[in-house]
Design goal:
The protein has a two-stranded antiparallel ribbon. It has one domain. The chain contains five helices and two strands; from the N terminus they run ααααββα.
């Protein structure tokens, strides 16, 4: 049920943004805008939000959504409108606005939909919202004995 609610929020947001850009600025009908929003929101939810976001984080998911949204709007918009040159700029404007929305939408997804539960208390862990911590490992050189043997040999 959480995925359905998240997908519905994404669909409504895409519909509002694309209705403003494609509907008012480029005069594409509302039915075509809703169809484009439905296809884009479903496709980008699966690729960007369910696959890329949990594995690579918010930035990677937002950067993945931008070219996919641009290509999707450009391709689907060419079928809806009669001006292929204008759809490139419409796709670019829409993709920029949608990427900004996606950046903040991913925080909603991480907190409410994509959660890992802590084993002890059942509390959600938000490891994807934190910066990664890197550690350095220090060990002895494995070839030190060979170097000592090499130094003992007469030259």
């Amino acid at each position: 049920m959480k995925h359905f609610a998240a997908l519905f929020v994404k669909f409504l947001s895409y519909s509002v943004i694309l209705l403003f850009v494609l509907g008012f600025m480029y005069e594409i009908s509302a039915g075509d805008v809703v169809l484009i929003s439905l296809i884009l929101s479903a496709g980008l939810y699966v690729t960007g939000d369910l696959y890329v976001l949990p594995r690579f984080g918010n930035r990677a998911a937002a950067l993945t959504d931008f070219p996919l949204a641009f290509l999707g709007i450009w391709t689907l918009g060419n079928y809806a409108g009669d001006f292929p040159r204008g759809m490139g700029s419409a796709g670019l404007i829409s993709a920029v606005i949608l990427s900004i929305f996606e950046f903040y939408y991913h925080y909603y997804l991480l907190r409410n939909v994509i959660q890992e539960r802590d084993r002890k208390g059942g509390k959600p862990k938000f490891h994807l919202l934190k910066k990664p911590v890197y550690h350095a490992e220090i060990s002895e050189e494995p070839l030190q004995r060979n170097r000592e043997e090499h130094n003992r040999r007469p030259t």
